[in-house]
Amino acid sequence: GPGATGAVSAATYSTVPRVAFYAGLKNPHEGYEVLKFDDVVTNLGNSYDAASGKFTCAIPGTYFFTYHVLMRGGDGTSMWADLCKNGQVRASAIAQDADQNYDYASNSVVLHLDSGDEVYVKLDGGKAHGGNNNKYSTFSGFLLYPD
């Protein structure tokens, strides 16, 4: 027949952009601040910046993000962690200190991003546990479908 059966051109794969990151939180944070996940494990495409804690879109498309933030409790407080896109909250999570000292706030989103859009996780009150190199608190995301 015409051409090899079932063969797919190698170019099909090489033209698909690869964007993915995964980072942990080394240092504790509290109050109202962007969480700087500075223990970067994966950063395909170099779109995540550990210094600012922000993912900046370089390739427009649909992305998946997830975050898990361990609350540092013990004083009867709560912690809120929001995922933001360009300053607008797109997902929220809360951890409450009942009888335990630690609790998780986590959520996931699927968002369309344009070039230059920023995605990050910020505290909206409470204390986030650092964890040194243990990666108790993590932030990750990847490109599902480029435009």
TrEMBL record:
- Domain of life of the organism encoding this protein: Eukaryota
Q: Which Pfam families match?
A: C1q (PF00386)
SMART domains cross-referenced by the UniProt entry: C1Q
- Where does this protein reside within or beyond the cell? Secreted
Q: Name all C1q domain ranges.
A: 14-147
Q: Which UniProt keywords apply?
A: Collagen, Hydroxylation, Secreted, Signal
UniProt-listed PROSITE patterns:
C1Q (PS50871)
- A GO CC annotation given for this chain: collagen trimer
* InterPro entries named among the record's database cross-references: C1q_dom (IPR001073), Cerebellin_Synaptic_Org (IPR050822), Tumour_necrosis_fac-like_dom (IPR008983)
Name assigned to this protein:
Complement C1q like 1
